[in-house]
Amino acid sequence: MQSTRKPAMTEGPVIQLRDLTVEFRTAGAWHSAVRSVDFEIGRNETLALVGESGSGKSVTSLAMMGLIPARSGRIASGQIMLGDTDLAKLSEKDLDAIRGNRVAMIFQEPMTALNPTMRVGDQVAESLRAHRGMDRAAALKESERMLDLVRIPSAAQRMRDYPHQFSGGMRQRVMIAMALACRPDVLLADEPTTALDVTIQAQVLSLIEDLKREYGLAVLFITHNLGVVALIADRVAVMYAGEIVETSPASEIFDSPQHPYTEALLASMPRVDRDLGALDPLRGNVPSIRERGTGCAFAPRCPLVIERCRTQHPVLNETGPARSVRCWVRGVSHA
């Protein structure tokens, strides 16, 4: 598989994570779910954050939205810079002014994210009234425009419907309309096509791409599906056990993956140009946050493991233009 997308033209980062570490308290101690994560996203650019369940992808996006539960979690260190503003240091009141306004999120399952007791038009209008100060009539008019923008047929009539009256694909379009209603700078999409069939998935991906270009969004697209990455991403960050283990332009990662984990993910994907017997499943599981030792977290599953991998934690090294890898075997000489 190969990405045919051209790199996006950007004018510097819209949002930037610097050495972000997120911890959760379990069994009486704090453990890192996200460790020293660095990345940035420019305007009109999509960064795909890729990895298995348990890799830390969703925790990263929740930290960016200020939604880490205070009773059990915390941002232990690092910065989340939205322009000159560090979101990690804002109060809940200040975050309320940014969430759904400058930074918006499309959640994985719209049926649980939408309020089943509210009409769809009112749900889209809610953020407009809160962040733009519109009266109800003006907010509903703009809501109708947004539903039409995301290609919901008969938008004026569907405004009065409830979420259960929409199909899965249409509910996801409502979520996109809600996220984009206030013209955010940053859009976080947490596996927004996982529950959709492939035809609807392609439509939603095309819609997100079109709206990204129209509004100049910086998009973080979280997925475990590398096929989706080929369609929508400009750059890719591969995540494992809470860390970025490889970064690459999307156009290069399919032809020349560098980290053994990225290679394993690609090898485990079904492809139309080879037999099912050619699949090489990735055995084992991502270690829990209480099982991550001092060496490379991928070492127990890695076919290229050397002794150094078990005892020393690898750093993320540049390996070429816009490319980096966290690996003792591939990243630096181990002689």
Q: Could you explain the architecture of this structure?
A:
Mean pLDDT is about 90; it is low at about 5-10. Helix content is about 30%, strand content about 25%. It has helices spanning about 55-65, 90-100, 110-115, 120-130, 135-150, 155-160, 170-180, 200-215, 225-230, 250-255, 260-265, 305-310; strands at about 15-25, 30-40, 45-50, 75-80, 85, 105, 185-190, 220-225, 235-240, 245-250, 315-320, 325. The strands form 2 sheets. Strands 6-7-8-3-9-10-12-11 form an 8-stranded mixed β-sheet, sandwiched between helices. A 4-stranded antiparallel β-sheet has the order 2-1-4-5. By secondary structure, it is of the alpha/beta class. α4 (about 120-130) crosses α5, α4 packs parallel to α7 (about 170-180) and α7 (about 170-180) runs parallel beside α8 (about 200-215). The longest helix is centred in the middle third of the chain and has 18 residues, at about 200-215. The protein contains 12 helices and 12 strands. It has 2 domains: about 15-100 and about 180-325, P-loop containing nucleotide triphosphate hydrolases (Rossmann fold), CATH 3.40.50; about 110-180. It is globular.
